[in-house]
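Review session, final week

We close the course with one last complete record, chosen because it touches almost every idea we covered. It is MFS transporter, a protein from Niallia taxi with 423 residues. Go through it on your own first, then we will talk.
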Amino acid sequence: MNIGLVKPLTFRAYRSLFSAQLFSDLGNWLDFVALQVIVAYQWGLDETAIAALIFVLGVPWVIIGPFASVFVDRCNKKFVMIVCLLLRIILVGGLFIAPNLPILLILVFLKGTVAAIYDPARQSMIRFTIPEEYLPQAVTLSQLSNNTMKILGPALGGGIIAVFGAKSPFLFEGVGFFLAVTLLLKLPNIKEHVLNTDSINKESIKKNDYWKELIEGIKHIVYTPKLQTAVVLSSIGFFLIFLYDGLLVFIAQNLGFSQGNFGLLISAVGLGSVIGSILLGNWTGWKSKPLQIMSVAFLLSGFFIIVMGLGDMGVVTLPLIGWCLGAFILGLMGSGESVPYSYLLQSETPKHMMGRVSAVATAFQTISMLIAPAIGSLFAKLIGASIILLAAGGATWLMGVIVLLFIVKRINHSKKIKGEFNN
């Protein structure tokens, strides 16, 4: 791995923040596996219970995160993160002893609420732990943590469940959160630093003008062209992915994957996303054109989703290794979308607004993720999963083309104006 990617880790504060994120991300995926195993296997409940679980996992990011983020921006970020982790330890203990689905869902909602408060604080802290020139590598490492734990978490969770039982991952998760707390204790206190270096309306804070501050975060996205484009692209991208994500197990069957080797397809996507993050972390030339990188990634992703749809219809036939290679490329392109997005979110947002802006942006993405599966499932019954794939792939490809054409047009227009000015 090139020194460029790991350079942020040479700064003690960022190293503590990143290490804590590793434990937090791992805990989230251990949690996700354990919850589904308990509901489906241990309690023998049906698809409706799983759907309710996934819905409750996502809702706090929409209805709690944006509104709580105003207080996150006002507060000491280190204190917020530590308190959130301590609460998560208590809540995973509750999940370990939860006797039935209603209580489990309540605890999941509360844990999701704490996570929706923790993440904006973590996003805010990134800018205070490294010099600005290392921001691309820092956000890439953050994305790399998330992508890597998507692979390791389920595998490790499955192994822990096999050895220690269905609820045992919660205990390991609690230990991980405790270790994250010990790492965050090494972070500097940045509250006074924020108030002294950023242009915050202190009078607004004194007057407790909550709604004004929340609207400022929303307006910042609306009136910052690059960030607005990135949030819109990312939200639409999530919607299109989750249109077919829940159908993937059925699509894989038609592509020739059995119950035993279906995991290879999912692992290929995860591996691609990790490799993509490493590549983007080592080559940071993309930071001058993040929207172009996102657009190219959408364009290529759309093409491979269309091919998968044609495979589901029987029009295209590939060996399993070919479909795994396609899944790997999809994961690779996923990093081409998520890493530049994360960079724009950080670089186009003032430090003192980071909590609000990141929470609002995440809420838009989560709304897409919550409504898309139901729409995809409904239309799959009406027109078939393969048509859903073709539609999602076509829309993804078209989105990439439109944004690229717009960027080229804007560049040519700027050159024309510059030429006229020089003449």
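Two points worth writing down before the exam:
The mean pLDDT is 85.
The chain has two domains: 1-216, 225-348+384-423.
Good luck, everyone.
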